[in-house]
Amino acid sequence: MIVDLNCDMGEGFGVYRLGDDAEMLTVATSANIACGFHAGDPLVMHETLSRAAANGVQAGAHPSFLDLWGFGRRPIHGERPADIEKAVLYQVGALLALAQDAGCPVRHVKTHGAMGNMANEDADLALAVARAIRTLDRDLIFVVMPGLETERAGEKLGLPIAREIYADRAYADDGTLVSRKLPGAVLHDPDAVSQRVARMLEDGAITCLSGRRIPTRIDTVCVHGDTPGAVAMARRLRAECAAKGIALRPMAEVLGV
């Protein structure tokens, strides 16, 4: 069995830094790089792309709502899908330009924070994101949560799809993530997290907070880079996968695209 280990990166801004990207790039196999709307700036984006290339890590775009103040985690309502589509085009297009200079191909797109959560439940928003990806490059991989609107949008538009689970987040029974405002939503114990992920990979199913199982294909596992102890968690997860005979490979290699 092979699977990708992805992490959100490039989430600094100006003189501010968040997460240990240099170390995480020695562990993860794919990097979701912030594109300036919730974090990141041209210098941070270029630096992260360059480091990803040096470490053989697959680079991807991590677009969001325009919400630096709230780190892209605040829902923004009332935006037209057509406007969201243009916002995604703008962000991913910027990363593609910087990637060309950095010599690091961009292979996937994964929505961040509230944009991703809302797109998972809003078919029009999910299709807007998928249309933007298809416009830029039909071969870009759309990272989606299984069984939700983003998966359906990617399938409808014929995009390559990577079905993702979260190592450090709890699931509700409908397959969405438990709100960060609720107890138990974010998981911090590296041993418990790595064992939980290994079980999900072996079972081919998401384990919900209630104990419910949702069968699915799993292509990639996410560890959040801004979570305290993220690198240690990723290293422990990598070791657990190796012990179970699960190899970690970049997302495109897992999908064979």
Structural class: alpha/beta
What CATH architecture do you see?
Alpha-Beta Barrel
Find the CATH superfamily: Glycoside hydrolase/deacetylase
Radius of gyration: 17 Å
- Specify the helix fraction band: 25-40%
First-residue to last-residue Cα separation: 17 Å
Tally the structural domains.
Answer: 1
Q: Give the topology string: H per helix, E per strand.
A: EHEHEHEHHEHEHEEEHEH
Architecture overview:
- Helices cover 40% and strands 17% of the residues.
- The chain is α/β, with parallel strands linked by helices and 257 residues long.
- The protein has one domain: TIM Barrel.
- Strands 1-2-3-4-5-6-9 form a seven-stranded parallel beta barrel, surrounded by four helices.
- The longest helix is centred in the middle third of the chain and has 22 residues.
- The protein is globular, with a radius of gyration of 17 Å.
- The two termini are 17 Å apart.
- This is 5-oxoprolinase subunit A.
- It is an enzyme of class 3 (hydrolase).
- GO terms for molecular function: 5-oxoprolinase (ATP-hydrolyzing) activity; ATP binding.
- Keywords: ATP-binding, Hydrolase, Nucleotide-binding, Plasmid.
Observed structural traits:
single chain, alpha/beta, TIM Barrel, seven-stranded parallel barrel, two-stranded antiparallel sheet, 9 helices, globular
In a few lines, what is going on in this structure?
By secondary structure, the protein is α/β, with parallel strands linked by helices.
Please describe the topology of this protein.
Layout: E1 2-9, H1 21-24, E2 30-34, H2 42-55, E3 58-62, H3 81-102, E4 106-109, H4 113-119, H5 123-136, E5 141-144, H6 149-156, E6 161-166, H7 190-203, E7 205-207, E8 213-215, E9 220-223, H8 230-243, E10 247-248, H9 251-255
Parallel strand pairs: 1-2, 1-9, 1-10, 2-3, 3-4, 4-5, 5-6, 6-9
Antiparallel strand pairs: 7-8
Helix pairs in contact: 2-3, 3-5, 5-6, 7-8
Pfam families: LamB_YcsF
Protein name: 5-oxoprolinase subunit A
Family: Belongs to the LamB/PxpA family.
